[in-house]
Design a protein that fits this description.
With 442 residues, this protein is an all-alpha fold. It has one domain: Growth Hormone, Chain: A (Up-down Bundle), CATH 1.20.1250.20. 81% of the residues lie in helices and 0% in strands. The protein has helices at residues 3-13, 22-51, 53-57, 63-94, 97-117, 121-124, 127-155, 163-188, 193-200, 202-206, 208-219, 226-230, 233-236, 241-248, 250-280, 285-313, 315-338, 342-368, 376-393, 395-404, 408-427. Helix 8 (163-188) runs antiparallel to helix 18. It is globular. The two termini are 18 Å apart.
């Protein structure tokens, strides 16, 4: 074994590497900052879809229908995420992780800034929502590649005993981006309604350009993953990573997607549908956005602690605790959101996203440890982004439809709990990966 290969193997089994080297700190910073910027852009859209896009881009529709249409554009981005995972996963597995990360960041920044410049429905008619959907799809496509690359560049550099913690830096970008997006949008929502709907909401989207430039400065200094550099790419050159995953690991892919859906349904319920439903019931929009900032802090702290615990006790026990807590809190959360009271909504979203953080912390490492190096980017990305499309992208639409049906809240709660239980079953079928050597997974 060559010196480089031995070094990569030692990193994967956790005996010789440290998270405190200058390069490792740069890698973790890149993973966190890049993911935070991407999710700032992505979640900014989610908040704006709940509060702004209905009257701005679907002004001719009934308000309730306009909200559903706005959520449909939100879902379009989630649907694009698996496609981004497939395409960028292919190049990430073939050409390397680093190049993908630079490309996805630029793509996301441009799309987000253009949303901030879009004319409204009253200015250009139906072309406005069509352009909005197009840019949302580009956002989703970019995030589909970003998460896998940011997570793997950290995980594959890290010592085995700290892989969960290192991989969590990509996941920590999600609550950090949510904090930033909700905080900035909340600040501008203090403006008079007419000014906010006219131009105030656009400024947070345009600020994405500044964030992307900062992220690129850090990301361009990161070195390629050692496991990618050392694995036998010649043997894999003629193989298509997507086909390899679908033919050799179909069950693992399905089960990994199911586990990831557990935290992403919480995201859809608490962060998107909950925000829209609560404000419709009378919760103050600015207070609701501030509550989302608090909930993102809760998710950030919970994810960080859960990732640490997963390195000690394993991924499965920690994720199982999160899913169990979500089942117990499902109905209480729905009742709190439906109350129309400011502080009830705050409790619902803070506790709900705190529980989400317990699952999110170990999830990146959990998914990555299911697949070999040659297809790890593709496999982990499809699982996570497929769960995003199903669990988060369509949850707000499904929740709104179930609430409007004869079954109402009891039916919505029952369906959500059933989905969480199915996710828990999948969790206990797949193998525990925290002690596996990444270099030897086949």
């Amino acid at each position: 074994m060559s010196t480089t290969a031995r070094s990569a193997s030692e990193r994967s089994d956790g005996t010789q590497a440290s998270l405190r080297t200058p390069q490792m700190r740069r890698i973790l910073a890149s993973s966190f900052l890049g993911s935070a910027i991407e999710f700032y852009d992505f979640m900014l859209y989610a908040s704006a879809a709940a509060l702004v896009f209905g009257p701005v881009f679907f002004a001719e529709l009934d308000p309730a229908i306009a909200t559903i249409a706005s959520f449909a554009t939100l879902a379009a981005g989630y649907v694009a995420r698996p496609l981004g995972g497939i395409v960028f996963g292919h190049f990430g597995d073939k050409l390397g992780r680093k190049g993908v990360l630079v490309t996805t960041m630029i793509m996301m920044g441009v799309a987000t800034a253009l949303i901030g410049l879009l004319p409204t429905y009253s200015q250009i008619g139906v072309a406005a929502p069509l352009l909005l959907v197009t840019l949302r799809v580009i956002q989703g496509f970019a995030v589909g590649g970003e998460w896998g690359g940011a997570m793997l560049i950290a995980l594959e550099h890290a010592p085995g005993g700290k892989r969960g913690f290192a991989a969590s830096f990509a996941n920590l970008g999600a609550p950090a981006g949510s904090i930033l997006s909700a905080g900035i949008l909340g600040l501008f929502s203090l403006m008079p309604d007419e000014q906010f709907l006219s131009w105030g909401w656009r400024v947070p989207f345009l600020l994405s350009v500044v964030l992307v430039l900062i992220g690129l400065f850090v990301r361009l200094k990161v070195v390629e993953s050692p496991l990618f550099v050392t694995f036998d790419r010649e043997a894999e050159q003629r193989r298509v990573p997507l086909f390899q995953v679908l033919t050799k690991s179909p069950l693992v892919l399905v089960l990994g997607t199911a586990v990831a859906m557990s935290q992403l349904t919480i995201s859809g319920m608490a962060s998107v549908w909950g925000l829209s439903h609560a404000t419709a019931q009378g919760v103050d929009p600015t207070f609701a956005l501030n509550a989302k900032v608090g909930s993102a802090f809760a998710m950030f702290v919970a994810a960080l602690l859960a990732a640490r615990l997963s390195d000690r006790f394993g991924r499965r026990p920690v994720i199982a605790v999160g899913i169990g807590a979500a089942v117990l809190f499902a109905y209480p959360m729905l009742l709190l959101v439906d109350s129309g009271e400011n502080w009830s909504f705050a409790i619902a979203v803070v506790v709900g996203q705190g529980i989400q953080g317990i699952i999110l912390g170990p999830l990146g490492a959990f998914l990555a440890e299911l697949f070999p190096t040659a297809v790890r980017f593709t496999g982990a990305s499809i699982a996570f982004q497929g769960a995003s499309a199903i669990g988060a992208g369509f949850t707000p639409i499904i929740a709104g439809s179930l609430m409007a049906s004869a079954g109402g809240m009891p039916l919505l709660g029952g369906v959500w709990i059933a989905v969480l239980i199915a996710c828990a079953i999948a969790l206990f079928i797949v193998p525990e990966g925290s002690k596996r050597d990444l270099a030897t997974i086949r």
